Each structure stands twice: as C-alpha cells, then as structure tokens.
Amino acid sequence: xxxxxxPFPQRIAGRRRVPxxxxxxxxxxxxxxxxxxxxxxxxxxxxxxMQATALRNSQSSLExxxxxxxxxTILDAMRANPDAARGGxxxxxxxxxxxxxxxxxxxxxxxxxxxxxxxLGATACGQVTCVAAVCTIxxxxxxxxxxxGNVAQTLxxxxxx
Length: 161
Hints:
This protein is α+β, with helices and mostly antiparallel strands. The protein has a 4-stranded antiparallel β-sheet with strand order 1-2-3-4, with helices on one face. The protein is 49% helix and 18% strand.
C-alpha cells in the first residue's frame, strides 16, 4: 500500500500558508536589504545636495554682507573728509583698478578698491558719484560661486553727506 503525502502541507491548523519549497523564499531577505540600502542611498544623496545648495547660498549671503560693509567703509571715509566729498573729490566711475596713492582722497579710494577686491574677488569694482552733497556708492562683483552661474551682483546706496 502506497501512501502519497505532500512534502509540505498547504495549511497547518488554519494558520498561514506554507510555501511548497524552501527554494521559493531563498534570497527574499537579501532583496529587501538591497532595496532598503537603495532608498537610504537616494536619501543621503538628497541630503548632500541640500547641503551643497545651503553652502552656495551662504557664500552668496556673505558676499552681499561684505558688499554692504564696503559701501559704508568708503562712506565713512567720505564723512571724515566732508569738504572733499561734497566738492566731488571722491567721484570716480565704475573702476576695478585702484587709483595711484597720493592725496588723502586717492589713498582712501585705493584702499577701498584694494580691500573690496580682496574680499569679493579680483573682478570687484566700485563707483562713487556725488552731486550736491548726495552721494551714490555702487559696488559690483561676480557672484558665480554663490549663484551657480555667471551672475554680476550690484549693490548701490545713496546718502547725503
């Protein structure tokens, strides 16, 4: 008499179904781990991209703050020498080349352009225009590192001396 029995029963006392063979479940745990590692890797790449963007934006913000500081630096020098400032002695077009030192005004301008380029890059330029005691100071620099492209930033401030 031959008894035919199944290698694995389909149900065990109303519980969950048991697979027909152990070979059918081999590697499932490994696939789950690989999927989890893939999801984690994508998430970490996203975090790294956000960190890089935050760093670029921080650099751009730093350069803007330095631009404001440099505008007030030349304004303070002009306020220390109001007669020359009101008379147009500090006037200069947009220039990236520091003027030759000589008088107090040209020394102030030379130091201003030199420090401007040290902090904002070699392409940083400045302009001073005073008409009837109303002065406009303009600073221009390349913000390609902060913005991710070739972007010229311009900051302009107008005040009365």
